[in-house]
Amino acid sequence: MSPTIQNNTIFLSPEEDARLRKNFKDRLQKCRELSGQRRIPSDPQSLRSQVIYADLMSDMQPGPQAQKDGAGLIVAYAVGTPYPPCTVPLQNLKPMGMHELRIDTHHRGRVLTVRRWGATPVVKLKICSWTVVQEVREEGEGGGEVDRLEVGLCKDVHGVDILESGEVFKVLEPWFTVGEQGELTIRIDHRSDLVCIDSTPSKADKIGRLKNTRMEVTKIAREYKEEGNAALKQRNLPLVYSKYTQGLEIIGAAKEDIACDLFRNRAHVNLLLDRLDGGKSDALASLTGLPDQKHRELDGKAYLRAGTAAYQSGDFQEAKHLFEEQQRLLPGEKEAAARISKTEQRLKERETGCYDFKKLKASLLLSSSRHGARVDAASFTRNVEIKPSPGKGRGLFATRGMEAGEVIMAEKSFCIVWANEEEALTSMTYDFRDDRIRVFPAGLCKTVVRRLIDNPSQVSKFLDLYGDYRGTESKGQSGRDGDRGKAIDVFQVHDVVARNAFGPDPRSASAGLWILASYINHSCLPNSEKEYVGDLMLLRATRSIAAGEEILHAYDLSSDYDTRMESLMRTWGFSCDCKLCVAGKADSEEVRSKRRELEREADALIEKGEGSSRLAVVKARRLVREIEGTFDEERYKGLPRMAVARVQKWISEAGKR
Ligand SMILES: C[S@@+](CC[C@H](N)C(=O)[O-])C[C@H]1O[C@@H](n2cnc3c(N)ncnc32)[C@H](O)[C@@H]1O
After folding, report:
1. Which residue, 48, 42, 172, is CA-closest to 109?
2. Cβ of 83 less than 6 Å from ligand 1
3. CA angle, residues 218, 222, 223, in degrees to nearest 5
4. DSSP at 502
5. How confident is the chain (657 residues) per 10-residue block, as mean pLDDT?
6. Is 573 touching ligand 1 by the criterion CB < 6 Å?
7. Residue 514 C-alpha to ligand 1 middle, in angstroms?
8. ipTM of the assembly?
9. Strand locations in 566-609, DSSP E?
10. Residues facing residue 149 across a β-bridge
11. In Å, how far from its chain's centre is CA 154?
């Protein structure tokens, strides 16, 4: 049997399960045995052959642990022991050489500088990339040693593999260990631990020699601006960002026109890169406040960019204010009025929960691939609040009474990856911490990491969500090296995604995360259900809900008690003790197994597609009676009999045919 994934559950044959575990455990064992030993210098030629061969093979096989699942390949990888990212400023780290590396050791307080070696390719696998790097020594010391450098899951920067995005890298607090391929390697898990250094000769050096005349500084800043504009035409966004930033670094704090131009242009590229925090702050920093027409137009543009960043962050009140500022500077501008009206629409949705669903659905049909299945709408959350839920951590509670069918709340996704998008990746993970193999939305995890690195203001609300590993500091690490932002703990992100992500469509590999909905606890007897319009999640009451009552949702709807328990424990790490589970637990193993068998028989009858033939309906009715007979009347009084739900629905539909 090949592995298959269904409803968050992975089905592996015992042999496949054992083989996977053995591979991962062997790697761990090798790590332990070699721990603390000195690194033996690698043979450069043999490394070169390996990387060239692996690069050729990478198109055909995404990694040694990939499993065929019939439809394609499921990549498997191990989640190891968490460790924190480096939070020490770069200038405070002590340089080290490759000869100092010890196996399975985090070299805290140290930094290793490397460059991609010769013309070696980068091997790009789904869950990691690797290449061969050479140590960069102090000037005049000749070529350094070479070794492997491997970057884990979060390896792409806006579509560019990080190892391909530069030549020279600083590896912060290097970890030398056994990598995904079973080879000894310098391994990066936290993307913020790898810093790409611009190795092109700096114009700043030239400035130093020219004794910093102001005219020269302005001229060079203009050159950076032109180079950035040229890179924008080529759509090389990381390069555009870097050019404008270098221009700004040279200008310093001076409020000259060129500085305002660079900030305004960088605001634009930030928006293209979905860096909303930077988009807003750069746009506001570019304001000149000068009264002539030219500067009013430029400032109007800046307010438009700042407003767009606020709008896309869901900050509609601020967006409205910024668009109004744009209108004040450029009174005749029609676009500004349209933006204000759109923002007012969002504010109304936020206040009332009234949406134009027809329009939203129509927009989904028209949407481009970049914003595919994402709607332009505001979240409506005023009917709920987060409060402690005894025995379950925190939960979501109703602030007022609601009727069955009413929308309790509507929430835009924090992050979503649809199955048809390039970032989509469902993988199997083997977690050393609890020895479990799970289905994991690795593509979503990667996208969240990028989002957090790019938008530090969103870190704390994400890391406040429930996750087993809390990191060394639950709100993300504070700023480091100025513009480099927060160091994001990838292990912490992994654990939050693992416990809070949902698939809007259980039949597909789409996965998303909704911040407020992540506080909803599970019950097999829920009072709400989710539906989706694109990435807008609507939570509806399935029965009347009193003010102050906890909102509960069924994470797993398996009718069989054992299957449900296993899924809740494996994916969310808890056992449910609702009334239905208490009743189910009291059933004998014999009764549970008989019920399972009858339910399978009913499913087979439905799937055989015998339509509504009288005989099939008679057979189905008999099965309903037999399944119902397995429930103890007294114990299940007032409780749903989930095992008959599907077949009963089929019978009632058959009656209509
Ligand atoms: C999506 S979060 C829900 C919010 C979470 N309670 C919190 O404090 O942030 C899922 C986690 O909540 C807890 N949980 C949810 N439903 C539960 C239940 N019925 N009983 C016990 N724990 C539950 C589990 O720890 C689970 O992994």
Report:
1. 172
2. no
3. 120
4. B
5. 61 83 88 92 90 82 50 76 92 94 95 91 91 83 84 85 89 92 91 83 58 78 95 90 92 85 97 96 96 95 97 97 95 89 97 95 73 86 98 97 97 94 88 89 94 93 93 54 68 96 82 97 97 95 98 94 93 94 95 95 84 82 94 95 92 79
6. yes
7. 15
8. 1.00
9. none
10. 131, 186
11. 10
Q: Encoding tokens for residue 48?
A: 């070169």
Cβ 463 vs Cβ 476: under 8 Å? yes
Domains and CATH numbers, the chain: 4-197 (2.40.50.140), 203-352 (1.25.40.10), 354-413+514-555 (2.170.270.10), 584-656 (no CATH)
From ligand 1's centre to the CA of 521, what distance in Å?
5
Residues whose CB is less than 8 angstroms from the CB of residue 309 and which lie 6 or more positions away in sequence, other chains included: 267, 270, 271, 276, 277, 279, 280, 283
> What are the structure tokens assigned to 593, written together?
């197994």
Atom of ligand 1 lying closest to residue 394 CA? 8
Atom of ligand 1 nearest to the CA of 389: 6
Q: Which atom of ligand 1 is nearest to the CA of 499?
A: 27
Q: Which atom of ligand 1 is nearest to the CA of 523?
A: 19
> Would you say 487 and 83 are in contact if contact means Cβ atoms under 8 Å apart?
no
Mutate which of 572, 576, 581 to test ligand 1's pocket (most atoms within 8 Å of Cβ)? Answer: 572
Ligand 1 pocket check for 570: Cβ under 6 Å: no
